[in-house]
């Protein structure tokens, strides 16, 4: 599911003059209030949090997951602060509440949880309510730093280092506390950045695919947002033209600027300060220019914050791509079209493609959004490289994709007898190839095509359980195969005769992609050079 197309079930993209910001009185910009259905982000009210790279959670935020420890540390610091503010010694406070000074010291150091009766006694002695004692914010910056330092030193990561704890006294300069807390946070940030390895990416993809399956890959909140936007530009039906998308940008109070020096690592750059969207002058051919612009607008409409984890990053891409697809292939028009085809038992992905002037891949992904929710058809999608490796996939029909121990299917070899592999050997590249395949989980009818991209030749396939094949064009196909996978003798192990002839006589050199071994790119937006983007915006802000 890495790099899925604009409208697909996964998180990638499918696919200096102003060319339209609208004239006259632009309509009010709409903002989504309930579309964070795939990945939730943190509170963006903190200016510091708004620019943290993904995965760079603060140590205090991680420690906050353990409410019990956090409460004890904060409570102890609060009691100590109030006691010293009232110029009371531990013996004085102990006499007031009927407890030994040594026991109060343990409470103040966050090492002992006081009983409710003791909490009430402490609150009375310190002149505050119990609720104020338990829920109070740190009274000043120094106490907040002491709490942050204590939390960091109690973390499993710090404990594993075997280093001594620093116990700040009243004479410890605040600047020292600032430095220590800053160091802890930077170490935590670096650790989190480097957890975004290929394994972490696979786990994130697996979790995201589970969420999509639970929803049948249909997200009503995003569909509703698409309807609102389309109504705002008086969309009446048919393919969404570039002119209508320019109107949509004006409706959201953005101007469009085509430039020839767009940062090489980006498809678009949005200047939120001046409400400008920068696009390349010439299309790359790999991406529909309508999709690129709609994705830029979608990120704004969905109110995305800077992602803090790789899962959030992927989730945002899925939501952005979904909204772009819901605009290019509007739900009401697409469902009406598919139901008409279903009545005639002539559903075909290529017809959906042609009717809305999108790519076959975009149409296939959009079909998975609508098929189960509106037509009652459970389905699966695959994008498979000619080598047999799964590039992206989605299913809610129980087809058994190969998976690694983490549950990830990306990078796994698919059975050579499946339609997504058989289509590569079909001479007819113009028409869709249809096949029934008997698998360990049932018989599936699948339709597939091949398309070439910058990454090579891929097959794109949509499949449904046998009983749903009656609704599709191509159901009469005579092509049929049998897959015994995951039985290794199906297609993983070589035939016995070949193995006997060649075993031990071959030493191949494997071709491994560097991305399989490298950590995920660092930065707020993986793979994007932020410095280059900021320099670009600085140049064009004076236009």
Automatic annotation (TrEMBL):
Chain segments annotated as transmembrane: none
Q: Which SUPFAM superfamilies match?
A: lambda repressor-like DNA-binding domains (SSF47413)
Keywords for this entry? DNA-binding
Q: Tell me the segments the record calls region Disordered.
A: 1-53
Residues in HTH cro/C1-type domain copies: 79-133
Entries under InterPro entries matching the protein: Cro/C1-type_HTH, Lambda_DNA-bd_dom_sf, TransReg_Diox_bact_type
One Pfam family matching this protein: HTH_3
Q: Please state what the protein is called.
A: Helix-turn-helix domain-containing protein
Which species is listed as the source? Glycomyces niveus
């Amino acid at each position: 599911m890495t790099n899925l197309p604009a409208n697909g079930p996964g998180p990638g993209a499918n696919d200096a003059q102003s060319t339209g910001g609208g004239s006259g009185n632009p309509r009010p910009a709409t903002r989504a209030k309930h579309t964070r259905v795939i990945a939730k982000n943190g509170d963006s009210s903190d200016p510091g949090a708004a620019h943290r790279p993904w995965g760079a959670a603060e140590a205090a935020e991680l420690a906050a997951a353990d409410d019990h420890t956090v409460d004890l540390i904060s409570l102890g610091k609060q009691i100590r602060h109030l006691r010293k503010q009232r110029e009371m010694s531990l013996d004085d406070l102990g006499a007031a509440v009927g407890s030994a000074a040594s026991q109060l010291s343990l409470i103040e150091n966050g090492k002992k949880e006081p009983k409710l009766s003791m909490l009430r006694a402490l609150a009375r002695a310190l002149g505050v309510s119990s609720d104020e004692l338990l829920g109070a914010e740190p009274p000043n910056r120094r106490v907040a730093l002491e709490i942050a330092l204590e939390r960091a030193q109690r973390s499993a990561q710090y404990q594993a280092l075997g280093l001594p704890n620093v116990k700040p006294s009243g004479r410890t300069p605040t600047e020292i506390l600032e430095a220590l807390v800053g160091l802890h946070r930077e170490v935590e940030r670096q650790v989190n950045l480097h957890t975004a390895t290929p394994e972490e990416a696979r786990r994130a993809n697996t979790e995201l695919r589970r969420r999509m399956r639970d929803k049948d890959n249909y997200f009503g909140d995003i569909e509703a947002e698409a309807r609102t936007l389309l109504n705002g530009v008086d969309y009446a039906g048919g393919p969404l033209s570039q002119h209508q998308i320019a109107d949509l940008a004006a409706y959201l109070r953005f101007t469009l600027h085509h430039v020839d020096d767009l940062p090489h690592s980006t498809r678009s750059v949005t200047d939120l300060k001046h409400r400008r969207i920068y696009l390349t002058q010439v299309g790359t051919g790999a991406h529909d220019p309508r999709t690129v612009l709609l994705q830029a607008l979608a990120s704004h409409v969905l109110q995305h914050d800077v992602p803090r984890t790789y899962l959030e990053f992927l989730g945002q891409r899925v939501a952005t791509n979904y909204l772009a697809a819901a605009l290019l292939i509007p739900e009401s028009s697409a469902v009406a079209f598919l139901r008409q085809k279903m009545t005639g038992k002539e559903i075909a992905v290529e017809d959906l493609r042609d009717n809305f002037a999108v790519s076959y891949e975009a149409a296939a992904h959009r079909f998975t959004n609508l098929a189960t929710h509106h037509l009652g058809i459970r389905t699966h999608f695959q994008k498979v490289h000619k080598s047999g490796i799964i590039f992206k996939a989605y299913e809610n029909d129980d087809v058994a994709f190969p998976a690694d121990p983490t549950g990830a299917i990306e990078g796994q070899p698919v059975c050579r007898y499946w339609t997504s592999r058989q289509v590569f050997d079909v001479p007819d590249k113009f028409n869709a190839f249809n096949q029934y395949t008997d698998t360990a989980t049932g018989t599936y009818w699948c339709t597939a095509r091949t398309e070439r991209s910058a990454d090579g030749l891929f097959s794109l396939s949509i499949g449904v359980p046998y009983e749903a094949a009656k609704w599709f064009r191509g159901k009469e196909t005579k092509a049929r195969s049998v897959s015994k996978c995951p039985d290794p003798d199906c297609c993983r192990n070589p035939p016995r005769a070949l193995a006997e002839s060649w075993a031990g006589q071959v030493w191949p050199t494997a071709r491994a992609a560097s991305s399989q071994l490298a950590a995920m790119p660092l930065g707020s937006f993986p793979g994007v050079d932020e410095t280059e983007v900021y320099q670009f915006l600085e140049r064009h802000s004076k236009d």
